[in-house]
Amino acid sequence: MFSSMILNIYLQGRIISLINGPSYEQPIKSIEELLEKNIAIKLIPTLAFYFGYDNKGLEYYQEIYDRRIESTDWAGETWFESMNKISRDRNIAGTTYQGFLIMRPNLQSTFSTIEFLPYPHPAGMPKNYYMHKEFYEWFNQMIEHGIVTKFLKLYEFSYALQYYVESSSRIYKVTMEQMEPILLMLLSGYLVALFAFILELVIYKVTQFLQQRAI
């Protein structure tokens, strides 16, 4: 019972931390920091034209232009329409430099790549060892793997940005439907363990009864 209480508290705390955790990296505060991070820079056609036009003597402009990824998301829209759409959707992180908004797709990269299978995760646990270090490590990996896998699938079809990101706080929301596969797996494990315990208890009682009858 005590182990179940500990696990319940741990599970609730873990879910809360996942729900409240930020989905964006620390903001980039300068163009130098943006270039130092060596990440792709996303420019709408208007900005790409500006940075590529007569940029001699303008610090950083050539490097920005050379490393650009031209965005076709706003093709055919005016400058102000593009900026309004970016501000409204808030699906791109960026920094401003001399009044220009330098954008970078940031949401997906905040989740580090998780190699799940190579991690050592025990196939079984000793009895009464729910507080064991290896169990927590395994449980963390299962939670992270499930959340990240779900996020990547949602992100692939643009559902993550559209339905699961708080636009005001730029926080990725974890809902119970995303936790359901993990919780079902955990529940099934406990049911199997409970069945095995009951079976062991029945076998023990039957063996004890037969031994007493034999005497």
UniProtKB/TrEMBL annotation:
Keywords: Cell membrane, Glycoprotein, Membrane, Receptor, Transmembrane, Transmembrane helix
Cell compartments where the protein resides: Cell membrane
Main location per the UniProt record: membrane
InterPro entries hit by this protein: Insect_Ionotropic_Sensory_Rcpt (IPR052192)
One annotated Gene Ontology cellular component of this protein: plasma membrane
Signal peptide (from-to): none
Residue ranges of the TM segments: 182-203
The protein, known as: Ionotropic receptor
Topology of the protein relative to the lipid bilayer: Multi-pass membrane protein
